[in-house]
Each structure stands twice: as structure tokens, then as C-alpha cells.
Design brief:
Strand order of the largest sheet: 1-3-2
CATH superfamily of the largest domain: Winged helix-like DNA-binding domain superfamily/Winged helix DNA-binding domain
Mean pLDDT: 80
Number of helices: 6
Structural class: mainly alpha
CATH topology of the largest domain: Arc Repressor Mutant, subunit A
Order of helices and strands: HHHEHHEEH
Distance between the termini: 72 Å
Radius of gyration: 21 Å
Largest sheet: 3 strands, antiparallel
Number of domains: 2
CATH class of the largest domain: Mainly Alpha
Helix content: 55-70%
């Protein structure tokens, strides 16, 4: 195989890689739209869902305090509830990572680790404060908001569905 043949092969592979990348992104967006049904909750419904999230976080905090054990703390869920509840209409609210960790009921190191995991999943975005490098802010992403909108809507629509005694 000559150098020209190798160059032509490499040039042919790059467009194929780009096409594959675009295809994967379109598939991801199609799944996201299908999962959400393409419908966003109204501003009033979103306020009600945020209130529900705050209530769920409070209930989880009370339960954990009565059980007197950190074994009952779920950092990822508590962080998502707090960050979702802190989001404002139409845009993501910016919250300090410290406040998120405190609300989740976990040490800062644990909370930051979970914020990193949630960020890898595309649910939140963390940013270092340019004025104070020690401070990190967190906000929910559009994907994170859509997931939490669906979750809170499902809870709100059927709070006892699937529970039988």
C-alpha cells in the first residue's frame, strides 16, 4: 500500500466518523424528545412540581433524622431534588455546591463526588466561580430538568400507583 493509498483511506474514514457522531447525537435527541413527549409543563405546573420536589426532599430529611442513620441518605436523589427545586422559570438557577451538599445531607466531599457523577450523566453543570476559585456553582441542565419534570409529573399524577397491601 502506498502513502497515497493510506492518505486516501484516512480521508475516507474521517467523514464516516463524523457521520457516525452526528447519527449518535440525533438518536440521543430523538430519545430525549420521545421520553418527554415533546411537551414542556406550563409555568404554573413547573412551580407545582418544584414545590413537590421541595416537599419530597423535606420528607426524606425527616425520615433520615428519625432513623438516625446516614445509611438512609441517597446523595444523588437529594441533590437532584434540591437543584431542581432551586431552578427558576425558564432558566436554571445557580446554586452553590456547598448548599447542595448541605441540602443533600452529605459531607462536601461526598456531595462533590456525586455532583461530578450527575454532571457526567448530563443532568447538572458545575462551574468554578471565576472570582473565587474555591467556590463551585451548580445548575440543572435542560436534560436534567426534562428528567426531573417527567419524574415529578409521574409522582404528582399517581402518588400511590403501584402500591398495594
Amino acid at each position: 500500500m502506498t502513502a497515497t493509498d493510506i492518505a486516501m483511506t484516512n480521508d475516507a474514514v474521517q467523514p464516516l466518523d463524523r457521520i457516525q457522531s452526528i447519527r449518535e447525537e440525533l438518536d440521543r435527541l430523538a430519545r430525549q424528545i420521545a421520553d418527554f413527549g415533546g411537551v414542556r409543563p406550563s409555568a404554573d405546573k413547573r412551580r407545582a412540581l418544584r414545590t413537590l420536589a421541595k416537599g419530597l426532599l423535606w420528607q426524606r430529611t425527616v425520615i433520615a433524622s428519625y432513623l438516625d442513620s446516614s445509611d438512609f441518605v441517597d446523595p444523588a436523589t437529594n441533590l437532584m431534588l434540591f437543584i431542581y427545586a432551586g431552578a427558576t422559570d425558564g432558566q436554571a438557577g445557580t446554586l452553590s455546591a456547598g448548599a447542595c451538599c448541605e441540602a443533600a445531607g452529605v459531607p462536601r466531599t461526598t456531595g462533590l463526588r456525586w455532583i461530578g457523577i450527575l454532571e457526567q450523566k448530563g443532568l447538572v453543570k458545575s462551574t468554578t466561580d471565576p472570582k473565587d476559585k474555591r467556590r463551585t456553582t451548580v445548575q440543572i441542565t435542560q436534560e436534567g430538568r426534562a428528567v426531573m419534570d417527567r419524574c415529578m409529573t409521574a409522582i404528582d399524577d399517581a402518588p400511590t400507583a403501584g402500591i398495594s397491601y
